[in-house]
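Let us work through a complete example step by step.
Step 1: write down the sequence.
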Amino acid sequence: METTTKSKHNNLKNVVLALVVPLPSILFYLYFLRHHSNPDHLLASLWSWCYRHPFLLTFVLYFLNINVLFWAIANIQSNHWIFMMGVTLPYYIIHTVEAPWSIWDVVAVAICLTGIIVAYYADTQLHDFSTKNAELKASEKPTIPILQKGLWQYSRHPNYFGEQLWWWGLGILAWSLGQGWILIGALVNTLCLLYVATLVEERMLKQSFRAEAYKEYQKTTSVCIPWFKSSSVTKDKTG
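Step 2: predict the structure and record it as tokens.
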């Protein structure tokens, strides 16, 4: 009887995980449906090809998932075990460790869902900003130096923040099963993404038309975790 109860609890965790994990892919598909017909999109030709060849696209994705992905995983596993741990071990632990559903599972799933929503809206706002600037440039009008609306008003990298919520949510799911060491993987993942964010900001500062605006943006806006603008904004307005 006890074994049956544990199995039911484990099945519940697996069902929830199975529902949460595909959500980023589903949102990507919705993004594709929304933008595939936009001729000005950076990936317009790729979107168009995918839309006109759905079955061929399916075979390509199958090949990438079964052959290329497994080859990549094999190389990652043999050379970068820490990164591999951060990406895959939470799934393994959740699937194999027997434990009843707890409040931490609810918290972890909520964090994952929040991360997906934040990343989706941040990327959508960034896409709209880039599209508008492309239209302004095409009509020979001044472009907008940096994006400071929506989620980008409170964080310089809200899309990265959303992604990290996703990974930390998965880590907490594994941690709640008594495997706290798994959070090392999420930490390494975060450090890697912060390094990428640094490279992005260096590139922004090298662009003369937005360098000054971005320097001020750095002074007043949180790097990753969304927060209210720095008080220096108010001082500048009243000074």
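Step 3: interpret the result. Residues 1-6, 233-239 have pLDDT under 50 and may be disordered.
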